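Researcher: Please translate sequence to structure tokens.
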Amino acid sequence: MGKNEMSLYSWFYCNIFLNIEKTTWYNRLMSLKVKQKIPLKIKRMGINGEGIGFFQKTLVFVPGALKGEDIYCQVTSVKRNYVEAKLLRSIKI
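Model: Translation complete:
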């Protein structure tokens, strides 16, 4: 392979394959912003006692929430694979 063929392959790989992989998780997390308030159903409990729910297929950790609760929470931090939020109020148990 010549120098031009290698750079074309590298460009193709970076612009096609990496962008497809990036958009799958990046777009979901970018829809969530810090201080955004979201409704959430807590599906399970984490090992540290925090409630775990999903918002638009994104994992959300909420300290103080219990399994089975419907809650409103506020996003405190957005990470690559998950979101942390604080409990605002419980709608129902």
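Researcher: Any highlights?
Model: The CA atoms of residues 26 and 53 lie 19 Å apart.
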